[in-house]
Amino acid sequence: MLKRHLLNRHLLKPRTPARRAGHALSALALAIATSAAWAAEQPQAAGTEHVDVVGQAVSMDKAIKEQRRSDSVKSVVSADGVAQLPDENVAEATQRLPGVSVERDQGEGRFVSVRGLGPDLNSVTINGTLIPSPNSGTRAVALDVLPSELVQSLSVVKTLTPDMDANSLGGTIEVESLSAFDHPGLFYTGSAEGSHDDNTGENSPKFSGAASDRFSLGSGTDNFGVAAAASWGERDFGSDNVETGGAWDFEDGAKLEEFEQRDYEITRERSGLGLNFDYQADDLNSYYLRTLYSRYKDTETRNAAGVEFDDAQAAGELGDSEGWRELKDREETQEIQSYVLGSEHLRGAWTINAQAGWSESSEDSPEHIAGATFEGEDDFADSGFNDTEKPRLSIGEAFYDPANFSLDKVEWEEQNTTDTEKNIKLDLARDYELSGHAAQVKFGGKLSRRDKDNDTNAWVYEDFDNYGISDDELLLSNFSKGSVDYGLGRFGNGISANAVEGLIGRLDRNEFYDEEQSRVNDFDMSEDINAAYLMHTLDVNDWRFIAGMRYEGTDFKAKGTGIEDGDFVASDASNDYDHWLPGLHARYQLDKNTQVRAAWTNSVVRPTFEQLAPGFVIDGDEAEFGNPGLDPLESSNLDLGIEHYLNRDGVVSAFVFYKDIENFVYNTDLAGSGRWATFDEAKTFANGDSADLYGLELAWQQKFSSLPAPWNGLLMGANATFSSSDASIADKGGERDIDLPFQSDSVGNLMLGWENDKLSLRLSANYKSDYLYEVAAVDDEAHDLHVDDQTFVDFTARYFLTKDLQLSFEAQNLTDESYYVYTGSSAYNAQYEEYGPTYKLGLTFTHF
Where's the TonB-dependent receptor-like beta-barrel domain (predicted)? Predict the structure, then answer.
């Protein structure tokens, strides 16, 4: 099984057939353009504006107000908006915003992409402080860790001002938690929910609540606020999967070397707690403390059954194959903690803001079965497959007899990753007049200290006959349990984790410790960033200008271990660099409801920790290693757009953007060059020279309150982002052009809603086109991996039983969208996975 390592990587997540994607965004763009033009011509209601106490229109109004007054190109969804959407977590809530899509894990939104760019090119802040990543190799924050109930508002900032961290290329996702000053007095709410997973038939509970109030301290009145929010939910679900890992031989047609069926059973538990304090000492001084804790626990059992053909086979052909069955059984806990202490002081024309933040993300996987592999005793004759997109196994009865497999190896692992970010910042601003025009000068600095470490321990149990275990004891029939409920074909029996643990528990674990795997994957990295900025804001009639410069100096250090031909070698590296990042923003008020924005900004994004890893493995003429000397990505960005506001709960906008990117990072093979001239393989990461990204972002949303009843309850919204990228890569195979990895050409949303004082309905669709996921060798474009397009359709209905009590029904993934990764062409599977719809019924009590 020469390519088993390909199958053991759990690639990406889901799709439906590629054919229907072509016209979806063209129709969406037409809908935006025609609907927005029509809406702009409609008369607005005269007299006093009215907004319902609770509902979709309220959330639209709040979000639009914040977007309108922002100095940046910014998209916002408020807590009310989050409540209207059938979203499990923060990642899924952001996908409703213009230009935003999500990468999914087991069907749930996990990482956020902005304007088609990959998650590692964005940053996430909670209450103003940067959040590190709980995953060992990435910078991208897995936002499925955060329950949506803990969020007061979500924003995606797409043009950075000089007073903001410069570490995002697509956008900065800003998460704000609840404050007592968000409500006029006592506020509390509580929800109970049950959900049903259609794929597994499992039912799951969820509970959440929030409360806030103000109190009088000293001589003040209602000047001290306390707000708390909590959430707990457990979801039992699963997925069915078939994947080749890209093991296609295209030299003589399209022939498959091996593939594997996988069944996942998952229990996912989320819990979170936020506790915030605000104190307004007087009109000139205020203080706050923001705290947030979130915990995400994933228990996963994966049964796999696979074959490797003796000779690569085309669909419909039969031949001999080797077969195997495998179990992975693990528990993984991710935690995010964030504590932010800050104050604001007014001193005449001066405003002083000080803030200290500490945040930590961690991922803990206690000792678990990373892989228990049972090999077939003999070859299986007359084995084959049909369907190159969703391979179905064709094989004799012997493959389903547990007596024909025996335990070959058990991989036992534990892993812990911790990522800590500490920072302090100070901002000073002075308002004054310049030639009769309002102006402000603002300057400040920030010190950030980040430490990320990973600790792995691994044991590999094999050669059992050397330890007194008989061949009969190793037969799969001794470890089998029940038939696997697999929706993509016949599977056979599953494997008992308890039985596997019972067997290896009889052995001395010290004799099976894998020092190489344990040490090479360990690392300790530190990243110290010192920043300072100066910016100036000037209002001249209908113009607002912001000009400034930001400096960021980075000191990076990495420690790890490599192995060269069996010998361990300490691997230490460091890299220092400085960036001067100018920026210019302009906003012009064409009329009362229309404004034009333009921005030239510069940003810097550091490589991922996987790419910077100091560990390496050199074995004969093969090598694999990280590259701590990588340069950061640098981008010069241009944005130009127009926003027209349609009353208080409607807006239509159009933006064009361009990004000139230097030093993007890609996978490469250096064999045949330099130190690696005599090597057959030398896999690492390298900087590309440059890449370009350009695109168009359209958005429209409105409530049609001017129409006669019942149409005055109608709400509609649509947004679409179209982008294109150009990049080139090179290695021993030459040079070729590619799209930027993770960059989708088209991303869009459609929303149709209706509400009155009692009932609220919302149907929404989210679309993302296909994108390049992983680049193969420069001379092997046919083995590039792509994620196919996806369209998710969700529905929400909410009904007020009383003024304070609301009944809700939600349905996610109504069209049973799947996930598909293909190899080179959409006809050839790398991974296919499907999940089924999820339905929820909930009850919410709210008191204002």
Answer: 382-814
H, E, C per residue of 44-85: CCCCCCCCCCCCHHHHHHHHHHHHHHCCCCEEEEEHHHHHHC
CB 723 within 8 A of CB 115: yes
Give how far Cα 158 sits from Cα of 120, 164, 580, Å. Answer: 15, 11, 19
pLDDT per position as a tens digit, 334-351:
999 999 999 999 999 999
Radius of gyration of the chain (CA): 28
The stretches in the chain having pLDDT less than 70 are 1-61, 78-91, 144-149, 648, 733
Give the C-alpha separation, 180 to 227, whole Å: 5
Tell me the DSSP string of 325-365: EEEEEEEEEEEEEEEEEEEEEEETTEEEEEEEEEEEEEEEE
* Count of CB atoms situated within 10 Å of the CB of 54: 21
* Residue 361 to residue 450: CA distance in whole angstroms: 11
Spatial CB neighbours of 27, under 8 Å, sequence gap ≥ 6: none
Q: What is the pLDDT of residue 802?
A: 93
Q: Which amino acid is at 174?
A: E
- The number of CA neighbours under 13 Å toward the Cβ of 697 is 24
Q: Are 715 and 751 in contact (CB under 8 A)?
A: yes
C-alpha–C-alpha distance, residues 144 and 109, integer Å: 6
Give the right CATH number for 4-847 from 2.40.170.20, 1.10.287.90, 3.10.150.10, 3.10.620.30: 2.40.170.20
Inter-residue contact 123 to 168 (CB < 8 Å) = yes
In the 8-state DSSP scheme, what is residue 379? P
Q: Contact at 8 Å (CB) between 551 and 580? A: yes
Reading the block at residue 760, the tokens are 């609220």
| Beta-bridge partners for 104 | 109
Closest C-alpha among 193, 262, 288 to residue 233: 193
Sign for the CA dihedral angle at 142, 148, 150, 154 comes to positive
- pTM for this one? 0.85
**Cβ count within 10 A of residue 621:** 12
Residues facing residue 321 across a β-bridge = 309, 380
Give dist(CA 435, CA 539) in Å, integer. 11
**DSSP codes of every residue in 629-683:** TPPPEEEEEEEEEEEEE-TTS-EEEEEEEEEEEES-EEEEE-TTSGGGTT-SEEE
Q: CA 369 to CA 456: how far, in whole Å?
A: 14
End-to-end CA distance of the chain: 63
Map 448-482 to HEC letters: EEEEEEEEEEEEEEECHHHHCCCCHHHEHHHCEEE
Q: Where are the domains of the chain?
A: 4-847
Q: How far is CA 609 from CA 419, 560, 627, 714, in A?
A: 11, 12, 10, 47
Task: Give the three-state DSSP class for 817.
Answer: coil
**Cα–Cα distance between 198 and 195 in angstroms, integer?**
10
Q: Report the alpha-carbon distance of residue 715 to residue 245 in Å, rounded.
A: 44
Secondary structure E strands in 117-202: 123-126, 129-130, 153-157, 172-176, 187-197
CA atoms of 750 and 747, how far apart (whole Å) = 11
> Dihedral through CA 164, CA 166, CA 171, CA 177, nearest 10?
-40
**CA 838 distance to own-chain centroid:** 20
Q: Cα dist. 305→2, 243, 261, 425, 797 in Å?
A: 16, 11, 5, 54, 41
Tell me the two tokens of residue 105.
Answer: 């894990």
Tokens of 352: 């002083």
